[in-house]
Amino acid sequence: xxxxxxxxxxxxxxxxxxxxxxxxxxxxxxxxxxxxxxxxxxxxxxxxxxxxxxxxxxxxxxxxxxxxxxxxxxxxxxxxxxxxxxxxxxxxxxxxxxxxxxxxxxxxxxxxxxxxxxxxxxxxxxxxxxxxxxxxxxxxxxxxxxxxxxxxxxxxxxxxxxxxxxxxxxxxxxxxxxxxxxxxxxxxxxxxxxxxxxxxxxxxxxxxxxxxxxxxxxxxxxxxxxxxxxxxxxxxxxxxxxxxxxxxxxxxxxxxxxxxxxxxxxxxxxxxxxxxxxxxxxxxxxxxxxxxxxxxxxxxxxx
Length: 303
Prior knowledge:
Beta Polymerase, domain 2, globular, alpha+beta, 303 residues
């Protein structure tokens, strides 16, 4: 049963009671907290203010993800708009939230966007190095990673907090300046949204889930992909599966890429058109550099 709780947010009573009984202060974050864009497959993200391992729990049929946070000031973007479920006697969480002013949030979001754009340029450099080493598949992987960073970075720079499952929808809805919108379109071309077919998604998903074989959220990712497929949201599904794979591969090394090149190629659904990728990289580089020149005082909020 859903009950009115936490301001305007509707939270299942079982989830609220479960979070309230945890040994640390807790609050609801993520798309369920904002009430925007969430799908029925979306988990309830519970910020737990204390030490511990992040994990998933099933509570009365609802998926709950516990995200442990020990230093709130390092998570200003994620915590903005959080709905407190349980606070400490000293009102620790309330004090932390009160400190996240709109100005601080915008600065932190803008900074996170710039960081993502820098990461895009870094991945593009890895693309060039891979080509020099005659490793075209690895190069294509790095360019696709660069594209995901550019989309997320552009959204953040212009005021939208990127949410992985909803990122493509956010990009569609954002009223971006022409040059920023053009950059996002280049990134989506690099990602290969036009290849978003059920067979391609099935191949990518199978390989991506193998990459995530030891991750605690593996089945949640699978459920989200299945939900998007059921809704025939093929482009969103393709984008999300590739983004999850990219995030997983970012922590791998060159030895892994060489040993599991076929798995990487399937998970990322990589293109082999080297001339086209080189052309796209130049446009992607210009877009990232333009984004980094954006002035925080001139950006608008689009979420």
